[in-house]
Specification:
The complex is a heterodimer of chains A (309) and B (184). Chain A has 309 residues and is α/β, with parallel strands linked by helices. Chain A contains eleven helices and nine strands. With 184 residues, chain B is α/β, with parallel strands linked by helices. Classes of the chains: A alpha/beta (309), B alpha/beta (184). Chains A and B meet through helix 1 and helix 11 of A and loops of B.
Chain lengths: 309, 184
């Protein structure tokens, strides 16, 4: 297969297994490119990309910008504070602005689930979802999958546990879709108040004991507690959460086998993961960041080069 | 006229051609101390490796660095095709700064792949001098002012014809075939 089955990257849910493999293969080549003395290729030189970030982001925005620049695309950036875009009208306004700017691609982060889908229905541009509310964050899942694949050769048959605030996490949902499509086994672990009700319908078992979860898995994805999305108390205190669900070196060393630790960032050191674990040799957190650029280059390259269905 | 296929280089002549190209390189590059070979992916790499083998069988003391260069991200037809091309591996484990570079491809036709190859090459440094070596030079339909310095065989063919190079290590036999389509 040499092309994606989709015209936009709205979520992992809409991708086929072959699409994901194609993105991984292409990302492999881009990883080689970004390790060259000259890290730039001219592929997207006649493409304009708008980065619309209606929600705060450091890593994802930087990673997308780097990916776009290394593909030689022209970039326009737009950021907005969270509060001004809660009403639906603003997004339509933005849509009209985008239409008049004649951009080829839009990378968008938005606090409302489905915002990227909405945009794809109304704009004549390729849309890449850089996170829509607590819904999906497809490029994060792709770079996570790519990193696991890089470490273990393939995803099939690997046991992955996602630990922490699954309820508010778009990373968790996208990763569950991706890992299951690629034949990995996924479980989640955390306080039941932070587990969405639908989770078992996805075929994902919920564990409440961290040690049990870690002993089962090959890879542990530690999630940040998203306090900014929590409008009520989901657990008594951060300290208690950290005691029950935080990963420290002592726990890591006491496991039956050597597991791999991942984190989508930003890390709250001392809450979900301690500093010595984050910086240990079992952690591939910085590989994830490097792979993020390569994976995003692959996504942009494959989408921009495809004529619409 | 019916479609036809004609062998323009059989195994014996193929071998002679490679040997001749290797000797021409030795004439110009002495002991290859400051020279590297870059094969263009996907099929120029076969020729690059074969040339290296030939050179080393002539003189085992030659230390020849060979890399493979993929040009996909540098092509000028991206977004002009229905789908993006799928890249091959680039493996250049050396810096080409101030080196003599021999770019190698199997067939030179429009010159567009070589143009992309020249661009791709610059990501690994500024070479002192670049030369082009091809097994088959299709004389007509060049789109760009690009010429090879070392040529295995010149072929007079029209655009609708197709040249196919088979390799012993890949297809089991060394040969070059010219396919001519039926007249419409």
């Amino acid at each position: 297969m040499s092309k994606l089955s989709v015209d936009h990257l709205l979520g992992i849910k809409y991708l086929q297994k072959e699409d994901i493999n194609l993105i991984f293969e292409t990302a492999n080549h881009f990883k080689e490119v970004i390790n060259r003395p000259i890290k730039k290729v001219p592929s997207l030189r006649d493409i304009t990309i708008a980065n619309l970030f209606f929600e705060n982001s450091t890593r994802t925005k930087l990673s997308f910008e780097l990916a776009e620049k290394r593909l030689s695309a022209d970039i326009v950036n737009f950021s907005s504070s969270n509060s001004s875009v809660k009403k639906g009208e603003t997004l339509i306004d933005t849509v009209n602005n985008i239409l008049s700017m004649k951009v080829d691609m839009v990378v968008m982060r938005h606090p409302n689930p489905g915002a990227a889908y909405f945009l794809s229905q109304h704009v004549d541009a390729k849309i890449v979802n850089a996170g829509d509310g607590a819904h999906e964050h497809p490029t994060q899942a792709l770079l996570d999958g790519f990193s696991i694949r890089e470490k273990y050769g393939e995803l099939k048959g690997r046991n992955v546990v996602i630990v922490g605030d699954v309820l508010h996490s778009r990373v968790a949902l996208s990763n569950i879709f991706l890992l299951q499509k690629m034949g990995a086994n996924v479980k989640v672990c955390g306080p039941l108040t932070l587990m969405p009700k639908y989770i078992t319908s996805l075929g994902v078992e919920v564990l409440t004991n961290l040690r049990e979860a870690l002993n089962w898995c090959d890879v542990a994805m530690m999630l940040r507690i998203q306090l900014e999305r929590q409008d009520m108390k989901f657990f008594p205190s951060l300290r208690e959460y950290s005691m029950l669900y935080g990963l420290d070196k002592e726990l890591l060393d006491s496991l039956d086998k050597e597991i791999t630790v991942m984190h989508p960032g930003p890390i709250n050191r001392g809450v979900e993961i301690t500093s010595d674990v984050a910086d240990s040799k079992q952690s591939i957190i910085l590989n994830q960041v490097e792979n993020g650029v390569a994976v995003r280059m692959a996504v942009l390259y494959l989408l921009a080069g495809k004529k619409e269905n | 006229m019916k479609p036809s296929k004609r062998v323009i280089l059989d195994a014996q002549h193929f071998d002679l051609t490679i040997k001749r190209l290797a000797h021409q390189l030795i004439e110009n590059h002495n002991n290859f101390e400051n020279t590297v070979i870059l094969g263009l992916q996907p099929r120029g790499t076969f020729l690059a490796n074969r040339i290296k083998e030939e050179l080393q069988s002539i003189n085992s003391k030659y230390k020849i660095e060979v890399g493979s260069l993929d040009t996909t991200f540098y092509r000028d037809d991206y977004r002009r095709r229905d789908n993006p091309l799928i890249p091959s591996k680039t493996q250049v484990d050396f810096i080409i700064e101030d080196k003599n570079v021999i770019l190698v491809d199997d067939v030179l036709f429009t010159g567009r792949s070589v143009r992309a190859g020249l661009d791709a090459m610059l990501a690994f440094g500024r070479p002192k001098k670049v030369e082009l070596l091809v097994l088959i030079n299709r004389r007509y339909e060049r789109h760009l002012p690009i010429q090879a310095k070392y040529i295995g065989k010149n072929v007079h063919s029209v655009t609708s014809e197709r040249v196919e190079v088979s390799w012993k290590q890949n297809e089991g036999e060394d040969k070059v075939i010219l396919y001519t389509p039926a007249d419409e």
